[in-house]
Amino acid sequence: MYVNLISQNMNQYIIRHKPNVEQMSEAFKKELVQRITRNLLDIQILRLIQTEPMWGYKIKKQAETRFGVKLRHGALYPLLNTMEKESFVTSQKQQQGGRTRKVYTITKKGEEYLEAYDCILKEQLENKDLK
């Protein structure tokens, strides 16, 4: 959701400025999305899991595709375990193609956490936190 808000703000900026800003703003957009993902990885992972239950490898690939950030297994799985301990996600082992996968699903607490984050981000984007 907040990536869309960033895109809307960038589009408004483009309308008000020179045409060559479009190229620069795309570079900024890519860089900002990557920074947001690296710094708020738990939130980005919750957003991915919110779309559908996922196992670790799929989360890793989706993060690479959607956010342009490569996740190491050594960073992803400890974070998923922490998120599960904090009750933001639950996991269930599933058999698929002869393999056992741990599939993660967002919990009500995880959804409430995302909603709170969205509200804070909206306030910041609207400069309400500076008034």
List keywords for this structure.
131 residues, Arc Repressor Mutant, subunit A, alpha+beta, three-stranded antiparallel beta sheet, 3 strands, 6 helices, globular
Structure overview:
There is one protein chain. The protein has 131 residues and is an alpha+beta fold. The chain has a single domain (2-126), classed as Orthogonal Bundle (Arc Repressor Mutant, subunit A). Helices cover 67% and strands 14% of the residues. The protein contains 6 helices and 3 strands; from the N terminus they run αααβααββα. The chain has helices at 2-16, 21-39, 41-51, 56-67, 73-85, 108-125; strands spanning 54-55, 89-96, 99-106. The protein has a 3-stranded antiparallel beta sheet with strand order 1-3-2. Helix 1 (2-16) runs antiparallel to helix 2 (21-39), helix 2 crosses helix 3 and helix 3 (41-51) crosses helix 6 (108-125). The model has no long low-confidence stretch (mean pLDDT 83).
